[in-house]
Amino acid sequence: MAEVQAIKDDDTIRLIGHLLSIRCNPQMADVWHIGLNLALRISDLLSIRFEDIHDDRLIIRESKTGKLANIPLNTKAREHIAKVRERHPNHVYLFQSHRCQQLKHRAPQPISRRAVSMAFQQVGQELNIALGTHSMRKTRGYFLYQSTKDLGRVMKMLRHTSEGVTLRYIGITQDEVDKDFVSLEL
For residue 133, is pLDDT > 90? Predict the structure, then answer.
């Protein structure tokens, strides 16, 4: 499996959301837009229940680390979540599978990671970019780093324990670090 990258420009971010909506379905565009704003691992993102949203915060236990994530929702995340809730007022999950709705005797389930991965790969192939389920998280980390140059903040947001892991994760290469050293003169 090819390694996915952070999306590093706003136009491509918007284009991906648009293409997911028209090539796949609006739910995949919702995953993209909300995922960009929450920077969660895909397993945690897809497991969000509406009951996990308290006022303007998302409170969930991360499946990989077992840590409690208490994330304030920014305006865009709140707007997208409100639209999903308005379209599907009876859903349990933020990204609920519509297939399970057809089977009345089965408990609601979130959409699968595989379905999201396939939709993202389809759009990525169309745009000739390595797009996957980690792209949302990596993109958010990349943009936070570019706006603050504070690796500690990015590590905390992504809940990483190593600077090296965070730099590789968000796609900051040694060439970019070298350019920063050359361009910043004090």
Answer: yes
